[in-house]
Design goal:
Layout (H helix, E strand, L loop, with lengths): L1 E5 L5 H15 L4 E3 L8 E8 L2 E8 L2 E5 L1 H6 L4 E9 L2 E5 L2 E5 L4 E5 L4 E5 L3 E9 H5 L11 E3 L4 H19 L2 H22 L8 H15 L9 H7 L4 H9 L5 H18 L6 H7 L5 H12 L9
Antiparallel strand pairs: 1-3, 2-5, 3-4, 4-11, 5-10, 6-9, 6-11, 7-8, 7-10, 9-12
Helix pairs in contact: 4-5, 9-10
Protein name: HTH araC/xylS-type domain-containing protein
Organism: Proteobacteria bacterium 228
Pfam families: AraC_binding_2, HTH_18
Amino acid sequence: MTALFSTSELSERDRFDYWHEVVCKTYAPCLGVVDDPRDFHGQTEVSQFGAIQVSDVTSGGIKYERRSNDLRFDPQDDIFVSVMLEGEGKFEQNGRQVRQGQGDILIYDSARPYSYHYDHAMHAALLRIPRPLMQSRLREVDHVGGLVLPATSVYGSLVGNLIREACRLVAVESSADIGQFSVPTLDMVTAAILRGSGGEFDSHARQRELLERIKHYMKGHLADEEMTLERIAFEQNMSVRTLSRLFAEVGETPKGWLQTQRLAGAYDALAQKRVRNVTEAALSFGFRDMSHFSRTFKKHYGCSPISLLH
């Protein structure tokens, strides 16, 4: 199903206010500023691609700013991956100030403040990916905002082609059939982001390697409800204190990270319809108390687990 939002039939007085409302409701609440609201035009086609949302967007020059108070008002928690089809933009997030030219891939995070400025008209296609789906594939998802994969790089070219083809697929395939393409697309996009980042995610290679080894072990035992910090530390030949320190250096705790991964795994399984019911999803990722699982899931994602099966 595709939803079309366009200013083409609106009066000059109403165009920009309508567009700003569409952006805030469809993507994320933010401040939008243009030089002349009466001369502004915008259009976006939004389609569901499995659990991912695909958009084809054109607009006049505009500046978007997602501020801290916007996050408090509506804490969207998605990752956006966009390819610039025409035009260029300037983007800032996570201390990165980057330019997105034609064909370049920009990754940004709606859970953190950002600013995005187009001096002139632009045309872009983008994927809106629920954070749990990225988190289960890309451990450093919190640090991807502001990354650019150049159009001239093999990974930038790959991701750009995947987004373009996703836009073509949603135009010709039924929503019932299209879900089988979304999972491999997401797998390839996240792999390309990881490989194309050039190691930018971490400056402490040895500690990073050790922490990744620990996380790999933990991810391999998500279904084991008996996995404790003591057991993890023993299996990794270290003390619980050292284990906790490694996580603390990246602003995490072992227990918190483990629960987030379990929830993300359950979300992914439910959203991709790989489980038959909520109980199967919970048991598959180390939850034995169904009431606790449902409460924790809803608190974390703002929706009940059963809603993803509908």
